[in-house]
Amino acid sequence: MRARLIEAALLVFGQRGVEASVIDEITAVAGVSRGTFYNYFRTNEELLTAVAVETGNEIAAAIMGLFDQPPDPAVRAAVGIRHWLRMAQQHPHLAAFFRRAGMLVLDQTLTARSETRRYVPIGVERGRFNLATPELAFDLIGGAVLAGINTLATVGAPEGYAEELAERILLALGLDSAEARTIAFAPLAPIDLSEESLIVRSAARIKEASRQPG
């Protein structure tokens, strides 16, 4: 039931925004009563946080699953940047949610933050990055990715936009221009989200609704 409410919330927040109180609409989409909602969440904000945690950690964990062993930190950063943006391109409702709840997603996505704290110092130690702290790198990467998602959700972006953004971030992290471009435009392995993932389930519901007459 908790997962059902979170799924409904992602759909509603993506369409209506996160500012309004939408508990009644969420319970209608989930097909439950308001009383059932309060068995799992006390407020609209608590549910919003749950959606941020679930979606952010799903993407971060899927990206981590691409690597059998710790990769070059620059490759790790570029792959993450590109997949976050591609996920937003593939799922407009997800892009709309991230656009409106972006800072909360950054703050609550513990997998992404802990990974950054792990691989950035390795990059500095190996002479790959020249930033002093993992927090600065996390803000640089996360802030740019959220801005990129906002662009995708509002005005769109040309082919290769995710790669161009990854290249620019790698330059800011300290790579030279030739290597930054090579890494940013390298072939990208797809990530695999299970059919039970929140993102896949919500996308399937949107697709099914679009097929309904009227």
Account of the protein in words:
The protein is mainly alpha-helical and about 210 residues long. The chain has a single domain (about 50-195), classed as Orthogonal Bundle (Tetracycline Repressor, domain 2), CATH 1.10.357.10. It contains 11 helices and no strands. Helix 5 (about 75-90) runs antiparallel to helix 7 and helix 9 (about 160-175) runs antiparallel to helix 10. The protein is elongated and about 55 Å long.
Topology at a glance:
Elements: H1 2-16, H2 23-30, H3 34-40, H4 44-64, H5 73-90, H6 92-108, H7 110-125, H8 134-154, H9 161-173, H10 177-184, H11 198-211
State the order of secondary-structure elements, H for helix, E for strand: HHHHHHHHHHH
Please, how many helices?
11
Shape, per Cα inertia axes: elongated
Q: Briefly note the CATH topology name.
A: Tetracycline Repressor, domain 2
Q: What is the level-2 CATH architecture name?
A: Orthogonal Bundle
Major sheet details: none
N-to-C CA distance: 29 Å
Q: On the 0-100 scale, what is the average pLDDT? A: 86
- How many domains is the backbone divided into? 1
Helix proportion: over 70%
Q: What is the CATH class name? A: Mainly Alpha
Spans where pLDDT lies below 50 across 5 or more residues: none
- Tell me the number of strands: 0
CATH evolutionary superfamily: Tetracycline Repressor, domain 2
Structural class by helix and strand composition? mainly alpha
Beta-strand percent range = under 5%
Rg from alpha-carbon coordinates: 18 Å
